[in-house]
Specification:
With 257 residues, this protein is mainly α. It folds into two domains: 64 residues, Winged helix-like DNA-binding domain superfamily/Winged helix DNA-binding domain (Arc Repressor Mutant, subunit A), CATH 1.10.10.10; 145 residues, Up-down Bundle (Four Helix Bundle (Hemerythrin (Met), subunit A)), CATH 1.20.120. The protein is 58% helix and 3% strand. The chain has a two-stranded antiparallel ribbon with strand order 1-2. The longest helix has 25 residues. About 5% of the residues have low confidence. Pfam families: FCD, GntR.
Length: 257
């Protein structure tokens, strides 16, 4: 039995253990991994945690899933798969690096989404933006709505690799969830939420118009703004002054009727 710590993501810890075993030859290329139930009993976690770990291993290229058969180590599994440790996301410096990755990835994804999105993809982006508007108005946590919005943009590219990488990284793409920006309050918090809403609205409207250049610019503005806010935080993640990029016109509310 492997005893996991309660610090950090349980699924990430399982990924670390299993990928280590693959590199060490404990699980050989082409071999089947232990069943879900065996992993549940070994790590003393829920089925959901095990499935999340398997999904991350699959996205990293280490394993493949054969429906009704099981999970197998890829015959061409990379020796060192791409992996970001969730534990490092407590550090502003590391979170900033992840945002730099997002800028490189999502700016072009937004441009592609604007030129390729079909009616279904646009409806998904619109619904995700409407949810952002709703949770801000009700004062609910916006992390999941934010994640869903950016995932819908990645999906609208029509390129499965954008979506696959996005799904692998998941919430690691959103370092503010691991910092202490939730400590913002009063007018500072409201200013942040208004800016957050406007930035996403501008992205949505550009994609809706099919304007790749504007979508690219709006996504870059949003992510650079996020990076500036993150860099203004103290070394422990406590929010500092709220810097803002040049003002953009307010985004219209989505028509969700």
């Amino acid at each position: 039995m492997v005893e996991l710590t309660r610090r950090g993501s349980l699924s990430d810890q399982i990924v670390t253990v299993v990928s280590g075993r693959i590199h060490e030859g404990v699980y050989k290329r082409g071999e089947q991994l232990p069943t879900e139930q065996v992993l549940i009993e070994e790590f003393k976690v829920s089925r959901t945690v095990v499935r999340e770990a398997i999904a991350n291993l699959k996205a990293s290229g280490l394993v493949s899933v054969r429906q009704g058969v099981g999970v197998f180590v890829q015959r061409d599994a990379p020796i060192r798969p791409f992996f970001i440790s969730e534990a490092n996301m407590d550090l502003v410096k590391e979170a900033t690096r992840v945002l730099e990755l997002r800028i490189a990835l999502e700016v072009e994804a937004a441009a592609l989404a604007a030129s390729r999105r079909d009616a279904k993809a646009l409806a998904q982006i619109e619904a995700a933006y409407a949810e952002i508007v709703r949770v801000i108005e009700t004062g609910e946590d916006s992390v999941q709505a934010d994640l869903d919005f950016h995932r819908s943009v990645a999906e609208a590219t029509g390129n499965p690799y954008f979506l696959g990488l996005f799904n692998y990284l998941g919430e690691l793409l959103f370092p503010r969830t691991r910092l202490k920006n939730a400590m913002l309050s009063g007018k500072v918090r409201q200013d942040y939420l208004n800016l957050f809403n406007r930035e996403h609205g501008n992205i949505f409207e550009a994609i809706k118009r099919g304007d790749s250049d504007s979508a690219r610019a709006a996504m870059r503005l949003h992510l650079v703004s996020s990076k500036m806010r993150l860099e203004a935080a103290g070394p422990d993640g406590r929010p500092g002054p709220l810097p803002t990029p040049p003002a953009e016109p307010a985004a219209p509310r989505p028509d969700i009727t």
